[in-house]
Amino acid sequence: MQQKKTPKSLSFRLNILFLVTFVLFSALVFRLGFLQIVHGEEYREMTERQNAQRISVEAPRGWMLDRNGEVLVYNTPVYTLTYTETFNINNLEIEVLAQNLAQHIDMEPEDIKARLARNEGLSHTIKRGLTFKEVSQIQENLESLPGIDVIVDPEREYRYDNLFKSFLGSVGNISAEDWGYYASRGYRMNEKVGRSYLEEHYEEQLRGTEGTIEIPVDRQQRPLGEPELTPGQRGNDLVLTIDLELQQAIEESIQKLKEDFDNVNDAFFVAMDPHTGEILGMSNDVRTVGAGRTSFASGSTVKMATTLMGLHEGLVTETERINDTEITIGNIRKSSWKNLGPVNAYQAIQQSSNVYMFRIGLRLINEVGLSQAFDTAYNYFSQFGLGVETGIDLPNGVEFDGYKSSRELPGLLVDYMIGQYHNYTPLQLAQYVSTIANGGYRMQPYLVKEIRREATSEDELGQVVTRREPKVLNRIDMSDEHIEMMQQGMEMVTEPGGTASDFADFKVKVAGKTGTAQTEDRDLNNTLFVGYAPADNPQIAFASVVPKSQETWSGGERSPHARIIAREILESYFGVKEEE
Q: What's the predicted TM-score (pTM) here?
């Protein structure tokens, strides 16, 4: 049988296919050879460079600014000397490097050597805060300093030194007891965090995005080439409610008072917008953690709360006059600072009648019994924020709710009615008087009004992230009519015949209430003055407290220290200071 021949066309096509396959295979071999021979070293280095050590660089924190955009806290660049470990460096080489570095920086060779050998990872800090001279010398001699580099770190800078330190706070290392909390939120152990006050309370907002130093290394972790720095992103900025000029006036007035009077050791002043709760200024005494942490017997400043309770409970009426003359409670004789005669609710505030308040306390005991009388008084006073935390935006544990005794005696209840039993903080007193000024709304005080994106310059604010809205904590359980009576009584305090008649000539009408509280030292009293202004349209409510001081007398008139600083501060705020 004869075999069939393969068609010529099929044979031709197979030859073409073999030829194409041969050409493609030859091209592939040629290309691989070309890449290996010509570019092999380059690609090998690229592959090795894909291995890199990444080192975090401290993130710059957000700024803090006053209500008008004045920068209070910012970051200043600090030059930091770093060391990236070189491969298989021995002790002798470390010794030589330390000696060479010692010629360029103010640091002993042994200290440098110890830091070079700390074994904290591939790169670590040798010295922070290099001078410009040190930086220049190091840069000029980098070739003889293997592994050494200079980077820029941010450092917190408080522009006005200690002017705001009692509530701006500070930053520092993470403590051992707090490490678990921060570790769970992605912090590094050596990262700086807010350690107190606003720096701590707004840590999440102020914290920036870290930068990185990327060091290319080979498979044996040997450094290849120069490190590459990616800068971090600054955290959000805080715009405070504080008015810088007012804050300066507060501090200057307090300092002047201390210099003028030897017996004045402390003084406190809080200024607050009564309609919003914004803290406009707050005294800065770092020894006692400021106006939210230290409490004092408040004296007659609480008499508006006492009178409003009496009116609301029907213990006194709007028109009733009570004869202000010495009375006996138990076996103790009590009186006002002088016998005032018959006084009504307005006059009891204007002339600061103790007896009027005593009568309210005694009538309350007769109505509900002693124990219930204390509970009732606590309830009314707490509606104003007296004896409870104000809710200010500071970390837990910073604010103090005052001092509250558990003893219940008739004499102590009547003392409570005139501010001689429990203690309150200046911040609570400011919140209390703000509640009267605005018609009965207890506002939550706050120090930060806005959170903004990073500002591009000191002259331009960043985009708003969050804007704080005023928050009403409660409406006091008293009528508008009775609140207006207390407002009128407070205006009468600063008029002729009132206990703060020295404000009668003040260019802006001030509504106020004086207070003098006895202390354990019978020669020293707490002097207080609370109020708001202008009386018909309050812009600022305040509490002025000077603890344990002697009153100043001039020409037969007393001028308690609390009113001295209050007048100076209000003069500065309203710009009404008269010529000498």
A: 0.83
